[in-house]
Amino acid sequence: MFKKWVVILALLMSLPALAFKEGDRLTDTASAGLSLDPKKLTIVDFFAEWCVSCRHELPEVNSLYQTLDSTGVTVVGVDVDEDVEVGLAFQKELGLKFPVVNDPQQSLVNEFTPIGMPALYYIYQGQILKVRFGAINNISKVITEDLAEMGVEL
User: Fold this and answer.
1) What do you get for the CA distance between the two ends of the chain, in Å?
2) Residue 4 burial (10 A CB sphere; 0-12, 13-18, 19+)
3) Which of 36, 88, 92, 115 is the most buried (most CB within 10 A)?
């Protein structure tokens, strides 16, 4: 019986870390890597050049970012492309105005372990308030509705 539990425990410990989820607190390394302002609700958007859905959603997020300035809400992108030059060219092609952290070593994406791309995390004072994974039609409308549920008026 003891051997069975040792095997089960070993298997559980070998599983990859679960993705950050609603209600979780960020680790210090994740907070530092994102340079989050604790006074602002931040939408963290994980994306990559190879992600077709990201290519459709990022222009909407970019437009919305420019209207969020006076609301106490901001956006930080995390480009997970392993080739920084590819990522920078992609960001330039889309004309992104919000700050972007390039993550070529995959340290942030490995810490968050999102289960789909793009991945949005709403974070305030180190706590994840809401998560959205994968392609979402009319993402700016969805984000606006999410923010309204959180008491943010645009």
Assistant:
1) 59
2) exposed
3) 36
pLDDT tens figures, 44-89: 999 999 999 999 999 999 999 989 978 889 999 999 999 999 999 9
Beta strands in the chain (DSSP E): 41-47, 73-79, 100-102, 119-124, 127-133
Q: Which two tokens stand for residue 114?
A: 């999102």
Alpha-carbon gap, residue 138 to 63, rounded angstroms: 12
Report which residue type is found at 72. G
**In which residue are the tokens 């990522």 written?**
87
- Does the model's pTM come out above 0.90? no
